[in-house]
Amino acid sequence: MPKHIGIVGCSAEGAALCYKTICTEGADIMGPHAHPEVSMHTPSLADYTACIYRNDWDGVGDLMLTSAHKLKSAGADFLICPDNTIHQAFDYVKARSPLPWLHIAEVVAHEAKARGFRRIGLTGTKWLTESEVYPSKLGAQGLEFVRPHEAARTEIGCIIMDELVYGTFKRESVAYFQKLIDRLRLEDGCDAVVLGCTEIPLIISDENASLPTLDSTRLLARAALRHAVEG
């Protein structure tokens, strides 16, 4: 029997995309209409942001652990979190978790290595792009990384937190991301870009970006599918 996937949700749009990917792409592995059992728990995003704004990453971890325990009670065998930013609490969570986890940045780094990329541009919230969540995992694969400049980190963060998490997708925001990716390619020598917020894939993809994209949301969902079915 496939393993039961537990999704520790944070923001609605990213969690929904991850859940939908697991359910719709399960058929590619398991047959028509099939997918592993999936449970999701999502506290209020306001609870997470209250901790993040005061730099309380242990508090973020405690929220993640509350979800972890509830998902274990629901029968989950392992956990994923389709939110890059709160992976800053991952080490705190992993040491106390009742279940094993897949790490979103580790999944992305393995994909980047497998596809032969060498220098990766980072996008995501300001908290994420200034953190070591991706640098640590990319570095472990021998990959270089480039953070956006400070003004871009702030603007990206505003687009994510004021628009994307609410399901608002503006053409000017798409254009901003496209120009940023152009800059990462032309000025910084990047050969791929991480879509390091789980909502970014809703507006940016290989079809409208000048670099190959590493879609953290769908890559995590696919890794969870493989783990559930193949171990």
Question: Nutshell version of this structure?
Answer:
By secondary structure, the protein is α/β, with parallel strands linked by helices. It has 10 helices and 7 strands.
Characteristic key phrases:
single chain, 231 residues, alpha/beta, four-stranded parallel β-sheet, three-stranded parallel β-sheet, 10 helices, 7 strands, 11% strand, globular
Task: Give the SSE map.
Elements: E1 5-8, H1 12-30, E2 38-41, H2 45-53, H3 57-73, E3 78-80, H4 90-94, H5 104-114, E4 119-123, H6 126-129, H7 133-140, E5 144-146, H8 150-162, H9 171-186, E6 192-195, E7 213-215, H10 216-230
Parallel strand pairs: 1-2, 1-3, 4-5, 4-6, 6-7
